[in-house]
Specification:
This protein has 602 residues and is α+β, with helices and mostly antiparallel strands. It has 21 helices and 5 strands. It folds into 3 domains: 229 residues, Serine Threonine Protein Phosphatase 5, Tetratricopeptide repeat (Alpha Horseshoe); 118 residues, no CATH class; 127 residues, Histidine kinase-like ATPase, C-terminal domain (Heat Shock Protein 90). Pfam families: HATPase_c (PF02518), HisKA_3 (PF07730), TPR_12 (PF13424), TPR_8 (PF13181).
């Protein structure tokens, strides 16, 4: 969509909302409140500030009429706005306030709705115990009022918690209960989502036939409902299911259907997922030409999404600039008015004017002096920061260049030599006879050792400079690294949020090395069988949470554990002005929290 069309669309949306605001004034109070709430609900993601202004009207009207239902409903939407902005503490505060009002007035349906939102917030922050508590309470409230749709929704949410824990059998039971209540409520949209959840969890359990059956049912129902988003999700998941069971022909068919459909409905996020899956399937088939072509299209769609995002940011900056200019004009008019008042005051007496002028000069002199000092301090601080950044980059570049040099030497030097040795040994077998079976076996073992050495050199070379980090970015590189780990020894769960765009090269390298170092430490020392890695990027910076269920250690005596690479992790993150917090006790596992601030652009 062009920038002109986007601007026109925004203006039309604002105009429609303004018209709604005028029309609702003539409606009865309850209808007016519902209209305002519906409008806020429909725009709160795209236009959160406008939605908040509508919610202010709802609350003012509700306070006059003591309409507690509207107050709680407005609190839910306001909490959702804070949640989607990443302000989870603020969202929880709003939700809890709404819950108190709902409890005081025995609003069971509202209590269930608020508890579901609170449960989702805790699940997002990996506090699954509290999430399960609030989801269960929501279900109990829905049972009190016999709201089948709300009961079904709560079972779905509880199932998602079990799925997050890896307890797929319990998750499946919850989804099946949800399906029963949605069918009882004749709620087809909810039924379609539950069918998809059941199909997905069957896929996680590697029961591919059952997974395919339920996903097909969900797809059929969503086509009937014309739920474009749901259709795209089903096609993508059917692609993954058939890929996992090695039915590449069917997987390619579904991937192409998903791509065609996403093009038709102009859904670029899911389109790039379709191309990425198609590329991976062709790669598994060893059809590298087709894999390359699909990956090129994936990169093209990803770049187009990036460009649209940048265009939106430019428009937002332009609006902010225009607003600031208007505010400056208002400030200028206010200053001129103050000068006029000062002139009128001067007529009250020459002495008073002289004293005022003298006092004014002293204040101005102090402010100028103080401002000069602040500027000097700021310049000095900026210079220090610049030097620190340069030093960090120099160290990182030197380290990575050395890694690349060693990797190239291993691959092109030692690797080639091992390959030549293997070739020569294979050729020698045709020129001499072995004296006995033992000699023949020794020759075979020697050839196997050379072959293993070749593979080991290639693995070390790849770990030194992973090409996927340079080509596809941090998320893909970490997934590639994790995929090489034996899940029987260590199950690694990776989740990412807000990392659709590439990060600064130095940040990507540091985070990859830190995560690589952490995983290796867990494998070597922790004795863990589960590791959770979460990467989140927001306006302030990048948060990394790495948690294992291993042996742990006493975090108050970290100096004893330098051999585990903790000092190396601290050093790398410090280069980027980041922070690292270690939380661990013996036999309680280890949690590493890393924060790297985003660089503010001038």
């Amino acid at each position: 969509m062009s920038s002109e069309k986007r601007n026109l669309f925004t203006k039309i949306s604002i105009s429609i909302t303004a018209v709604i605001g005028v029309l609702v004034l003539s409606l009865p109070v309850i209808a007016q409140q519902n209209k305002l709430l519906d409008s806020a609900q429909s725009i709160f993601r795209a236009q959160p500030e406008l939605a908040l202004s509508l919610l202010v009207q709802v609350k003012n009207n509700a306070l006059k009429t003591k309409d507690n239902n509207s107050i709680v409903a407005a609190g839910l939407i306001e909490g959702n706005i804070a949640y989607f902005k990443g302000k989870h503490d603020k969202a929880l505060e709003i939700y809890l306030h709404a819950l108190v009002i709902a409890e005081k007035n025995n609003l069971h349906e509202q209590i269930a709705a608020v508890c579901n939102e609170i449960g989702t917030l805790f699940k997002k922050n990996k506090d699954l115990e509290k999430a399960l508590f609030y989801y269960t309470r929501a279900m109990n409230e829905a049972i009190v009022i016999n709201n089948n749709a709300q009961i079904a929704n709560s079972h779905n949410n509880i199932g998602l918690v079990y799925e997050e824990e890896g307890n797929y059998s319990n998750a499946l039971k919850q989804y099946q209960k949800s399906l029963f209540y949605y069918q009882k409520a004749k709620e087809k949209l909810g039924e379609s989502y539950t069918l998809e959840y059941i199909g997905y969890v069957f896929g996680l359990m590697k029961k591919y036939e059952s997974a395919n059956e339920y996903l097909q049912k969900s797809l059929s129902l969503r086509r009937e409902l014309k739920d474009n988003y749901g259709i795209a999700v089903c096609l993508i998941e059917l692609t993954e299911i058939n890929r996992d069971k090695k039915d590449f022909k069917q997987a390619i068919s579904y991937a192409k259907q998903a791509i065609s459909f996403c093009k038709e409905i102009n859904y670029p996020d899911m389109l790039q997922q379709g191309y990425l899956l198609l590329s991976e399937i062709y790669e598994q088939k060893k059809d590298f030409d087709q894999a390359y072509q699909a990956h090129k299209k994936y990169v093209s769609v990803k770049d187009s999404i990036f460009n649209v995002t940048k265009s939106n940011q430019i428009n937002e900056l332009q609006t902010q600039y225009d607003t600031e200019k208007k505010e400056q004009k208002i400030d200028l008019l206010n200053k001129e008015s103050a000068i006029q008042k000062l002139k009128l005051t001067q007529r009250d007496g020459i002495i008073f004017a002289i004293c005022l002028a003298f006092l004014f000069c002293i204040i101005i002199g102090y402010l100028v002096s103080n401002r000069y000092k602040l500027k000097q301090n700021a310049r000095l601080q900026n210079a220090v920061i610049v030097q620190q950044d340069l030093a960090a980059k120099a160290v990182l570049n030197a380290e990575e260049n050395e890694r690349k040099r060693i990797a190239n030497e291993l691959h092109d030097g030692l690797g080639q030599m091992f390959s030549a040795v293997k070739l020569n040994l294979s050729a020698l077998a045709d020129h001499f006879e072995f004296k006995d079976e033992h000699g023949k076996k020794m020759y075979g073992k020697t050839l196997s050792l050379v072959d293993e050495s070749c593979k080991e050199v290639r693995v070390i070379s790849h770990q030194m400079t992973p090409n996927v980090l340079l080509k596809s970015g941090l998320t893909s590189a970490i997934r590639d690294f994790i995929d090489k780990i034996d899940v029987k020894k260590l199950k690694v769960n990776l989740s990412t949020f807000g990392l659709q765009d590439r990060l600064d090269e130095n940040i990507e390298i540091v985070l990859y090395r830190v995560i690589q170092e952490t995983v290796n430490n867990v494998i070597k020392h922790a004795g863990a069988n589960s590791l959770d890695i979460q990467l989140t990027k927001d306006e302030e910076g990048i948060n990394v949470m790495i948690e294992d269920n291993g042996n742990g250690f006493d975090a108050n005596h970290m100096e004893k554990f330098e051999g585990m690479g903790l000092k190396n992790i601290l050093t790398r993150v410090t280069y980027l002005n980041g922070t690292v917090d270690f939380s661990s006790t013996p036999d309680q596992g280890t949690l590493i929290a890393i924060f790297i601030p985003c660089k503010k652009q001038a």
